Every structure is written in structure tokens, then in C-alpha cells.
User: Fold this.
Amino acid sequence: EIIGIYLVAGRWDIVLLVQVANQDHLHRTLLGELRRCPGFERSESMLVLERHAPTAQSAIAHALEAAAESD
Assistant:
């Protein structure tokens, strides 16, 4: 069910990417698993509506643009 774990900077410390079948499954996952973890204080749920995987070409172009901006 947890398909990604990311340590992040900013508002949150950890982002979990969770795949669930429906809203009830999400509710059971939050109440039954995540909220029982030591140190768990709060959560915010977001839904992925559409996923866009970057192509190698667009990733390279983005990296080049970022490098040019830092010069």
C-alpha cells in the first residue's frame, strides 16, 4: 500500500505515497496503520489526478535550464 517514502523539507518531514483502492481503503490505512506509528501527529491527504513521467529529454532540458539560471 505504501509505494513511496520521501524525506522532505518544508511544512512536513515525511511524504508517503500510498496507493489505495477507494476512499474507505484510504480511511482504513490512515486509522489502522499510519496513525498508530510512534510520533505520528497529523496527516494531510492529497489525490493524484494525473501522473506525468518526465522523458529523459525533458529532464535533461530542465537540468540545463537550471544550470544556466545559476550562472
Summary: Strands lie at 2-7, 14-18. The CA atoms of residues 30 and 43 lie 8 Å apart. Helices lie at 23-32, 56-70.
